[in-house]
Amino acid sequence: MRLLTRRLPHPPAVLRRGPLREGAFPSRLHDPRVAALLGMWLGVTFGVCFLTGLVSHFMQHPPSWLEWPARPTWFYRATQGLHVATGLASVPLLLAKLWTVYPRLWEWPPVRTAAHALERLTIVPLIAGSIFQLATGIANIAQWYRFRFFFTVTHYWVAWITIGALLMHIAAKLAIVRANVGSGRAGRAELTDRLSEPEPEGAGLSRRGFGIAVGTAAGVITLTSAGQFAPGLASLDLLGPRRPDIGPQGLPVNRTAVAARVLTVARDPGYRLEVVGPRRFVLTLDELRAFEHHTSKLPITCVEGWAADATWRGPRLRDLLDAAGVPSGATVRVESLEARGGYRTSEVNPSHARDPLTLLATGLNGADLDLDHGFPARLIAPNRPGVLQTKWVHRVVMV
Ligand SMILES: Nc1nc2c(c(=O)[nH]1)N[C@H]1C(S)=C(S)[C@@H](COP(=O)(O)O)O[C@H]1N2
Ligand SMILES: [Mo]
């Protein structure tokens, strides 16, 4: 511990030039209070973004002990909407924060103690991780997949690195505050005094003006992109790359039938739906259409940042499973006609499989399901990420 806090020798003063000069950054906005305030807001947006990201990850890859409920139906849409909104709002906050604190890069002396050096080093993964997460997240909602790595895996692991670095950063800052003003009531009183010191006189933007500008930027970005998720904001949706109401049958398409190479098999009159359980059976398309139909109003909520409501029609999954004698506690797998692709099958846990809203839909918005939306049949279940709403289903298997 001593070693960590022992004063290190000063570097020679002749090296103190350019941005290292005293007073090289005159703006009164390079101010610890502005930095602390922005840091607090970033803590909130990053915290919410991280937690909602975890929800999305564990909904797509649930550990064996976790069974997500099918209700409330809007839960995934809300968490994913918050994830994208807080991520986007973080962009102006992070830029403002980096601008406010960048003179600290040229702090003199560059390192005072070993502990100070460590604190400065944790800034590297924090800044690099933050920029990487925001940039890849934006590329993902813009459906721009030029990078060579697999988005979801990398975005997930870099999130842990970034949050780890953020916690270390906050711990280091708190230690410094405590060392400077002391703890206890006297320390807190001194801190409050310092924070309420009047703003220094000077030209240029005031702290207040800066705060309003950054807050407005964050708000405007959020409002003009949240329309992709929140139907009430659709008319303000200027920045969202997708319009949730444009596409065949008024719904966007994630992967077309052509891209999935199912054009021929999906239209083949020899199509059969096979339900595998203790009493396995097979249905032709006409028999599937003759099965008792129900209607569900449910959204598709894509991790790529859009959600769209639709009215689906088709047999309830649970009725098909009952007919095959599948016990109510069983997990089932739905399989697509698609031969290759990461999303060709998905597992449906008992609470989703048994929910009355879960359908093997054959109809959408008052017509037959479009080929691009999964004709002849697709899974649609409440509170479930879009990637798990498997299209072109031809088999349902008890696992
Ligand atoms: N077989 C199959 N089903 C799939 C996909 C896919 O690539 N293959 N994409 C999924 C994704 S990521 C989403 S968001 C939804 C989108 O459904 P839509 O294209 O009907 O809007 O379908 C899901 N079902
Ligand atoms: Mo998706």
Give me some keywords for this one.
four-stranded antiparallel β-sheet; single chain; 43% helix; Sulfite Oxidase, Chain A, domain 2; five-stranded mixed β-sheet; elongated; alpha+beta; binds the ligand Nc1nc2c(c(=O)[nH]1)N[C@H]1C(S)=C(S)[C@@H](COP(=O)(O)O)O[C@H]1N2; binds molybdenum atom; 2 domains; 399 residues
Could you characterize the architecture of this molecule?
By secondary structure, this protein is of the alpha+beta class. The chain has two domains: 235 residues, no CATH class; 149 residues, Oxidoreductase, molybdopterin-binding domain (Sulfite Oxidase, Chain A, domain 2, Alpha-Beta Complex), CATH 3.90.420.10. The chain contains eleven helices and eleven strands. A five-stranded mixed β-sheet has the order 2-1-11-5-6. Helix 2 packs antiparallel against helix 3, helix 3 packs antiparallel against helix 7 and helix 4 packs antiparallel against helix 5. Molybdenum atom binds next to loops. Ligand MTE binds next to strand 3.
Number of strands: 11
The H-and-E topology, N to C, reads as HHHHHHHHEEHEEHEEHEEEEE
Catalogue the unreliable spans.
none
Q: Roughly how many Å apart are the termini?
A: 56 Å
